[in-house]
Design brief:
heterodimer; A: about 525 residues; 7-stranded beta/alpha barrel; immunoglobulin/albumin-binding domain-like; globular; B: Immunoglobulin-like; 3 domains; 3-stranded antiparallel β-sheet; about 25% strand
Chain lengths: ~525, ~250
Amino acid sequence: MIDTLTNKKGLLSLVLHTHLPFVRHPEYEHFLEEAWLFEAISETYLPLLRVFDRLEKDAVPFRLTMSISPTLAHMLQDDLLMQRYVDHLDLLLKLASKELDRNRHDAKVLKLSEMYNDFYSLNLKEFEDVYERNILKKIRYFQHAGYLELITTCATHSFLPHYQSYPEMIRAQIMTGVESHDRIFSKMPAGIWLPECGYFPGVEEYLRNYGIKYFISSTHGVLYAEDRPARGVYAPISCPNGVTAFARDRASSRAVWSASDGYPGDPVYRDFYRDLGFDLPLDYIAPFINDGINRVNTGFKYHAITGKTNQKEYYDGAVAKNKAVEHARTFVDNRVKQCATLGQYMDRPPLISAPYDAELFGHWWFEGPDFLEAVIRETARRSDDLALLTPTDYLKVYPENQVTKPAFASWGDKGYGQVWLDGSNDWIYRHTHKLIERMQELVERFPDEKGLKERTLNQAAREVLLSQASDWPFIMKAGTTVPYARKRIKTHIHNFNYIYDSLSRNTIKTEWLTKLEKRDNIFPFLDYRIFKKE
Amino acid sequence: MTKERLHSFSYEQLIEISSRASILVTSGVNKDTLVGILLDAYEEDRIEREELNNLAIQMESRKFSISQNEEIDLGMDDDLELPLRYNDTGIKVLLRDPSWIYCYWDLEDKKAEEIENTPNFKSLLLRIVELDSCKYSDDDILDYFDIPIKPVDFRRYVNLPSTDTFYCAEIRALIDDKDYLVVRSNIIETTREYVSSSRQNDNSNSSELIRLSGFSSEFGEAHGVSGYTEIPQRIIPIHDLLDEEQFND
């Protein structure tokens, strides 16, 4: 491998971060926010697995890094949620059938109804028959086959810089993330996705303790390092303790992220915002939307972006796919040109680290998986110029990197902690910090409990971790589904405080606890002593 | 938000929605006008949010986008109301960005009463202390400034004068003309917002590579790579850069 990679003109490391917060509500028959998971499975995870399958079948070599958050991995293994996903698909297929009938006299629209009928039928068939409701099994397969490097992230995707004064909590988030990953994928992760690329100086000490060799950093986390990064962001830097930081390349992300001047905004691509859930009369669409009253996206989108107009053209899948291939070729071509420019100044092939939220591919940018597949095929075709690799591959070839300390940074707006700490969400920290302190106090008071008390303490630890998800302050700031985010944080704080008070009074209600354990059933292996003060 | 969704609410509910969103409506306005006002406000809010967020955040938020109808919670979640404070004495500092910290604090009722009843008690102060190291010692104090606070205050954002240094916060009681420590916070290390200067043995191409990483090569004068820098050495804030287009995808 060393010879192969050192001879390349450039190296490309694609990192797909898959994450959704823990959303599971057995107490309701249907729960709107569970659709985050269902849409991601349908539009991103299953299509990506198809991409990997096709590449393998065609013997196209590829190496990708994929971080799978512990909360997402848990949900993907949860029987209740997976049954609900099947129910969700059944409902969509009923809508497809209704649409086939409604559009039977309009060939153009009928073709689109057929497209969705085929898409969801294939999803259901593969999910049930091929993956047996466990898509992680297939991801594990691609890991073992050498195509994917799987890495982890923090237990509940907590934005670590805002908890840095609680070392035990940082440890708990990282340790639980690593342990969860190991249990699911039977392999210790070499790398970690620091949630929101949130790095603070010193976090690498915790990472090293759990065998983590690298993390993904924002661009300025490396550029503003203690010492000037001699190779810019085109080679990683090593923290003094040996943990390595790979910085995001900004040029390669804008083209893929931007709705205005990036590829996903092309007029021929599917329009994300036009959806049958809002286009059709309420009495027709009622069985397929929330409670039959509140319109939601159904996933059936018949229009192309077209332009900044409400008069949208109908979507043409074949045209859009060709465009995705064309964009992929441009993307690879630009990376090759970028590497040629960079190569003049470097003593080793430039490395372009390109991390993305995986859900971009498919869910928002419907043609994203086609684009990704074409990028991989095009990179394989131009293998003299560019090679795909993972951070671990890179470190095997270049184990020695400039030693310096990265700077506090995130990939959030303005580059630091503003997204997760502003007027909309700062109220949470008084409570989530208090929970950590109280949890530590509980460990001191009950260091070696068994039976019901141990179960209670373990559930308390679960509630502490769940309250710290970066998603809730993020949603409060971003302004989507804010009441749900507020309620989730409050519920976890409330649950914890109830346990705390019950333990103080020595009056634990078994029935209440069992119900809560069944609802917030994540991390069954969790031991509350993880919060023990050092 | 859709017109249809807003029309599904009663007039009273729409008034309640406007009031919760701090949207001023003239009394006696009819339902259609009220719906129009709310739609405009939601659209304005959406555009503002989009403009305020960078691409990574816009992308992330789309994961949670399942409806064009923003969730409207008209419920009163009293059963989940959280305490405003925990009646204990403490102060915490969180680093928000290189220039701002967020402090929150609390004083136990007994302690607050004791302070307020001290003869000649004048006021409470929030003191922001700049330190030379990550461990507190009186000898390490580089500078400090005070912000008067009221007993009902429990939190504040504070703008910091220096980057790349250490800070902590204290609540102090001003009695007579002297101030006394009530409680001290954790210490935070602020960050650099500049590219460190090159060293003699650096790769001579580093400036060009840093420029290509997204920064101009005009770095100005050399400056310290760590430790205390009294004047923020901000060269080019990252959000002002337009360099992403340099490879013109």
